[in-house]
Amino acid sequence: MHHDHDDHDHDDHDHDHKHPHAPPQKDHDTGPVGAYELLEEAVRSLLIDKGVLTAQEIAAQVDLMDSRSPALGAKVVAKAWVDADFKKRLLADTREALREMGIDIGTLADYRTVENVPGIHNVIVCTLCSCYPKLLLGIPPAWYKSLAYRSRVVLDPRGVLEEFGVELPEGTEVRVHDSTADLRYLVLPMRPKGTRGWSEADLASLVTRDCMIGTAVPIVPKGKRKAA
Amino acid sequence: MVTRQQVKSQVTGPGNRFAPGQTVRVAERPAIGHCRTPWYLRGKTGVVASVQGTFRDPEKLAYHKPGLPRRVLYKVRFEQAAVWDNYRGPAGDHLEADIYEHWLESGSRE
User: Fold this and answer.
1) A21 burial class (0-12, 13-18, 19+ CB within 10 angstroms)?
2) Which of A110, A158, A179 sits opposite B88 (nearest CB)?
3) Quick one: A84 and A190 in the same domain?
4) Which of A10, A45, A180, A191 stands 20 to 30 A from A119 (CA)?
């Protein structure tokens, strides 16, 4: 635990000093309870009391969500890079291909994979809210949910990509996917040059979250490049 | 007496009205309540890129209805220049969105 006053010895505590006795760091929930927090608590208690769900099931679901991170998506991408048959299956039926890898994306939404190829660069957005392949990539970054990203990436995708530092070869089509309905999209980025013979784990380390949203492309660090 | 076919169409919805490659226009009308058709695409013309399957109707699901009949969902591809008057990018750029059948009309290109 981090203390702001390491020299403050509370064992021989006299009350001569003047500082207020608030803890150095407040609990995150000391503020007034918001309407949505109350609503969530009320619904959760009702579901538990009526026997629809148990507290353990809710905790397990929270744990499952926390276990999902872009590392999982990166593993999928790396496998698609080294295994052409798997890539075919991933593009044809993302749900089934993920199941092969032991990844269950649940039943709330179906998934699609869109492949970046020479001449086409894909970018994902949800202009209506913040639909995101959470069960594959984890919780979306704050900017993905921002009004600025959601409105600008459809109107001026090239401007947004420039700000993200994405440089596309001349003549590349930018294809924006607005996930407006029941499908969640994953971008399968292109395998970068200079990675021949790399292990799946090494390849996966190049695949960042943004690569799978389409606001980045995988980059091989200078020191790690191998002659192709 | 309800026929098997009627039950089936209640559950699966009608067959696809549009096929990949067909030109479609997004209906230009307001929606009451929850709706998954973005405003910026209403009245815009695109091409069906693929049929995504059938899904329970989100406009009904949002209000605790079963969402039946299911709706056919299409991936519609728009030329960016057809969506925005001042699109800053080359003519080859596209935008794709998933649009339900009841929001699509058959369209033709001028």
Assistant:
1) exposed
2) A158
3) yes
4) A180
| CB pair distance less than 8 Å for B40 and A127 | yes
Is A128 at the interface with chain B, CB within 8 A?
yes
Express as a percent the part of chain A with pLDDT over 70: 87
Q: Is the same domain home to A202 and A122?
A: yes
Which residue segments constitute the domains of chain B, with CATH numbers given? 4-106 (2.30.30.50)
CB-nearest partner of B84 from A112, A128, A155: A155
Instruction: From B32, B50, B29, select the one nearest B97 (Cα to Cα).
Output: B50
Q: Is residue A91 part of a domain?
A: yes
- How distant is the Cα of B65 from the closest Cα of chain A, in angstroms? 16
Contact B69, B3 (CB under 8 A): no
Same domain (yes/no): A216, A149: yes
A4: confidence class by pLDDT, cuts 50, 70, 90:
very low
Cβ–Cβ under 8 Å, residues A110 and A184: yes
Q: Which of B47, B96, B99, B104 to mutate to test the interface with A (most CBs of A within 10 A)?
A: B96
Whether A130 has its CB under 8 Å from any CB of chain B: the answer is: no
